[in-house]
Amino acid sequence: MKVLVFGGNGLLGKAICNAGRELKGWHMGAISRNSNGPLRGDILNPDSYRDILKDYDAVIDTVGILLENKTYKKSLSGDLSTFITNGIPSLFNPMNKSITYNDINRDSLIKLSNEVSNVGNSLNKDIPLVYISAHSCPPGIPKGYITSKREAEYYMIKLSNEKGGIRPIILRPGFMYDANDESNTRKMLKTVIGSASMFLNWVPPPVSTQSIAIKCINAIDDNRYRGIIV
């Protein structure tokens, strides 16, 4: 099995690639726009990856943003004091808005879904396509975040029903953290969100990227998984 992971160099993408290799012995290809390796492609530009898709049996989309700000992921990966001093003010500064939810969370999947569907139909099969969505909209995060995710899900399932060529698999995790890294800001956020989930039913408990990666790999490997599997 050969699996192509968009955003494969990110926090979740790396965990998925590791899980695929370790659990199944699969060939995992990490593709990103900033890659220096042979798998370089921009998910918003199908021309950059169309030919690459033909060599893979399954595709995973881990690309997404929580805020319309390119710097927030770097802030989450830093130490707590830097995050409080510099990170929080910059995250919610409207002047720092440089990307949109619709571009990254919705339109990227729409374009990828169309391309994978075309490949699947040309081979007369449904190619597993995994989309990492979200359980709900976290407190303080603009509604556009979850709206873009739900619209992407809807399009993916609609395309599968009307055109075929893909087996849609949608995961809706809560806040994700790396179980092997207890040194950064995500550790603090994991604790806060975990405590909140104990008292607020609508706040899902945090989950490790490793556990989501395992669910992702198992869903690809089992044809019974289709649609939203949470």
TrEMBL record:
CC per GO annotation: mitochondrion
Record's keyword terms, sorted: Ubiquinone
Entry keyword Iron: no
Gene3D superfamilies membership: NAD(P)-binding Rossmann-like Domain
UniProt GO MF annotations: protein-containing complex binding
PANTHER family membership: MIOREX COMPLEX COMPONENT 2, NADH-UBIQUINONE OXIDOREDUCTASE 39 KDA SUBUNIT-RELATED
Protein name from the UniProt record: Ubiquinone biosynthesis protein
Organism: Pichia kluyveri
